[in-house]
Amino acid sequence: MNLLDRRNHLRHRIAALTYVSVDDSAGGILLNISEGGMGVQVIGTFHRNQPVRFAVQLSGSNKLTGGGQVAWASPSGQAGIKMLELSAEAQQKLKEWLFTSALSGIDQPIDAAPATPARSTQTRMVMAGGSQASTQPASPGSLKPVRRPPPKPVIKPGVLLGPFPLTVRNIEANVSSDAKGVYVLGEGMGRQFEVLKVGRSDDVKGSLGEYLGKYKNFQYAFSLSQVEAWERECELYHQFRPRDNKAHPARRYGSDWDCPICHGFA
Q1: How confident is the model over 91-105, as pLDDT tens digits?
Q2: pLDDT tens per residue across span 202-241
Q3: Between the chain's N and C termini, which has fewer beta carbons within 10 Å?
Q4: Alpha-carbon gap, residue 230 to 19, rounded angstroms
Q5: Cβ-contact 224, 170 below 8 angstroms
Q6: What share of the chain is helix, strand, coil (3-state, %, to 5)?
Q7: Is residue 145 part of a domain?
Q8: Contacts of 249 (CB under 8 A, 6+ apart)
Q9: Domain assignment of residue 10, given as a range
Q10: What is the DSSP letter of 5?
Q11: Structural domain count of the chain
């Protein structure tokens, strides 16, 4: 049975980017965490049963440190760590942080108050003795304008954004958590950007994290569907013939998708 199927604690997927360091690794990001273990993506590799020291930047200056053991690891830098040495204070801190993170993920209604019909601006107040007093309408000078955030720019599907330096901070700042589409990896900026690899993913943010330390810069474009992402990947492949793409982008197994450029796998 896979180790992931035998967890004693429910793992919480991390919505906000959280930094982590393990031993002498160059740092990375937290993928999921529970009271007994966590999944990480770091720059570096580990081996199963390796004892490690870890530090997780929970929020602001609030840091969780302790010792553990690698339960599983992959060559790409992903690993599962079992927490073995955690002080009572650190355990309480982790429980509180998990609880707060869970609450922050609950969707709140936009309009919590029920709609009420329009009334006259002149109202009546009930005084302490039971008498009523008339109030005057509020003067225009006492009303404060409601500031609304500026509208976000509309980004068309398939349009490449970037390039950006391939760092944890830039991934978090420029790629939304639910973005699916294509990504481009390479070196240089602006017109000097050299494309070395193209790919597609239903989780662009997570996929880019797997290439930390392997490429210097990235671009990405979101897509509305899997077939649209594949067609855009094909276009980029034929346009740049990237060095690290050894073959034509593969279509989804069992599908009849047709490459818009070569109409096959030339």
Answers
A1: 888 888 777 766 554
A2: 999 999 999 999 999 999 998 888 899 999 999 999 999 9
A3: N
A4: 31
A5: no
A6: 20, 30, 50
A7: no
A8: 198, 199, 200, 230, 233, 234, 237
A9: 3-102
A10: G
A11: 2
